[in-house]
Amino acid sequence: MNSFPKLIAFDADDTLWANQPLFDDAEEELRLLLKQFGSDEQINQTLIDVQTENLRLMGYGAKGFMLSMIEAAIRLTDGAVRGTQIQQIIDLGKELLRFPINLIDGVEEVLETLSAEHELMVLTKGDLLDQESKLARSGVGQYFSHVEIVSEKHEAAYRRILSRYHVEPADFLMIGNSLKSDILPVVNIGGQAIYVPYHTTWHFERMAETGHPNGYVQVESIRDVLGLLQALR
């Protein structure tokens, strides 16, 4: 980072609030529900396989995850899964659509401080209704001037958004917990990024941490963002 950004964007899930732990809990419930049909490893792998097949069609979010859990259950049981078990999976999915939002420690302090002088953006991927609902339930929506919800976070998506806001990549800062989605695509188009790792990461977002000279800054806590930006200013 070598210049103060004109536009500061935050990822949402597992950057502003806890999300993946809820999905991890749902997967554990699925393993318990289907334990007579396979080992934990078999159930995990079947769900990963089904999600891999479905991501391009269904995208990200709780609804696609719920349908993938149902399909995994059908596959694991050779179609013998009962209606009551499918209803339990549907109930798990519904809980993922309405769980109380728990902000990550320090988030509101950072947003309140930065929004007093700068326009902030939420830039997240997933289901539109689901992400809008989470932002509304979070209680921090008032700190953001812009909200962008996309189906995928790749270089082309970032370029489109920056073009729409008339911001050069060098004047853009992305803050998030995913190297794959939040950090490297932004660095690759010439933007700035702050990587804030979270203690658990979705299987499809995992990748080896790699040094990227002059590309991004890694911090331990989102509170560290304030110190970095104050130093730049």
UniProtKB/TrEMBL annotation:
<dbReference type="GO" id="GO:0016787">
    <property type="term" value="F:hydrolase activity"/>
</dbReference>
<dbReference type="Pfam" id="PF00702">
    <property type="entry name" value="Hydrolase"/>
</dbReference>
<keyword id="KW-0378">Hydrolase</keyword>
<protein>
    <submittedName>
        <fullName>Haloacid dehalogenase</fullName>
    </submittedName>
</protein>
<dbReference type="InterPro" id="IPR023198">
    <property type="entry name" value="PGP-like_dom2"/>
</dbReference>
<dbReference type="InterPro" id="IPR036412">
    <property type="entry name" value="HAD-like_sf"/>
</dbReference>
<dbReference type="InterPro" id="IPR023214">
    <property type="entry name" value="HAD_sf"/>
</dbReference>
<dbReference type="InterPro" id="IPR051540">
    <property type="entry name" value="S-2-haloacid_dehalogenase"/>
</dbReference>
